[in-house]
Amino acid sequence: TDAPLYADLAGDAEVSFEFFPPKTAKMEEVLWDAVQTLAPLAPRFVSVTYGAGGSTRERTHATVTRIQRETPLSAAAHLTCVEASRGEIDEIADEYWAAGVRHIVALRGDPPVAGEAFRPHPDGYASAADLVAGLRARHPFDISVAAYPEAHPEAASLAHDIDNLKRKLDAGASRAITQFFFAPETFFRFRDAAAAAGIDQEIVPGILPVSNVAQTRKFAGMCGAEIPSWMDRLFEGLDDQPAARQLVAATIAAEMCRRLYAGGVRHFHFYTLNRAELSFAICHLLGLRARPVAKAAAA
Ligand code: FAD
């Protein structure tokens, strides 16, 4: 491959980090440590997920507004259409706007019962495209949407899914962030197909550093991403070797990022799972260097 060596990377990559809202005080500490470790890499934004069925409404809000208020980072709130009326969602959006949050990751969300078809709330937004249009009509948010390099499991075909992505972007989103994937070619094929369909907005690869294959496979089964068999082979025999597992995990993800970089990618979105080390190490290999963080704007 003609991908540059790590030592030759220009340090011109940009990154963003995704967190989930903590459930306990202990988890909150872990999250905050991760935010503080990753903040010096000056991410474009950090985002906070919204639990299935809207279950983390308050916790997502608290986490996003705390990041926005207490750090110099730009916080993005994930928001889904599940189990909520338009009025309820519009209210959440208004609260974010009032708190100074300017970026929403707009999603449809998964059906409350896994495997069942998605049924919109009778007064709700029917799809992510619908939500994007609703948000745009309310406030001039910067909006990101989801994309699926291996197609969303409910999509009739990859072409249909790309049409849907185009609808979301045409409705007012400015970028798409992808589901995780483990082969750069998967991303490049998708990016080419999107471009051929007339999509010219940025498609940001979602990078999941994997250090636990079994856990990842459980999750991947639900979201249309395949775990290749070489991944099992690379982690074989490492169940009782957590340090080696971390090194292997960083190597796999960094290699993929290096090849994506060679293919022109300059923004990488990391699924951190609220742990900083792997994402930090991969960013470092990509040429990013920690810079001093400005003091919090307001306590
Ligand atoms: P949509 O874009 O609305 O699409 C859903 C499916 O319906 C697709 O197959 C699409 O092709 C099809 N479709 C939509 N409209 C039409 C139409 N008019 N005609 C035909 N087909 C149509 N989930 C959470 O609960 N919380 C989160 O915080 C969260 N964050 C995520 C972040 C990222 C980056 C990604 C990639 C996913 C995230 N998800 C999250 C998961 C997401 O909610 C699920 O994948 C969900 O099933 C689909 O959401 P969507 O926004 O992609 O839906």
Automatic annotation (TrEMBL):
Its EC number is 1.5.1.54. It catalyses: (6S)-5-methyl-5,6,7,8-tetrahydrofolate + NAD(+) = (6R)-5,10-methylene-5,6,7,8-tetrahydrofolate + NADH + H(+). Its cofactor is FAD. Pathway: One-carbon metabolism; tetrahydrofolate interconversion; Amino-acid biosynthesis; L-methionine biosynthesis via de novo pathway. InterPro entries: FAD-linked_oxidoreductase-like, Mehydrof_redctse-like, MTHF_reductase_bac. SUPFAM superfamilies: FAD-linked oxidoreductase. GO terms for molecular function: methylenetetrahydrofolate reductase [NAD(P)H] activity. Keywords: Amino-acid biosynthesis, FAD, Flavoprotein, Methionine biosynthesis, NAD, Oxidoreductase. This is Methylenetetrahydrofolate reductase. It comes from Sphingomonas jejuensis.
